[in-house]
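Example record

The entry below shows one chain as it appears in the dataset: sequence first, then structure tokens.
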Amino acid sequence: HHQGFGRVGEGLRVAAHAEDGTIEAVEDPQRRFALGVLWHPEAGEDARLFDELVREAEEYRAHR
């Protein structure tokens, strides 16, 4: 594995690990939708994360 989070910033929580234990995603539990990932959620077989991002963006736009 050549990419990964070296350390997680204060207030963030680890959300996903690779099989080798490398941190691949973090989230901010204090925010409605704040997620950092080290993969392309729009390109995988499981589109749920990308679909949720689109839904949150639409919700934000509708209420700003």
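Notes for this example: The chain has one domain: 13-62. The beta strands are 13-17, 23-27, 35-37.
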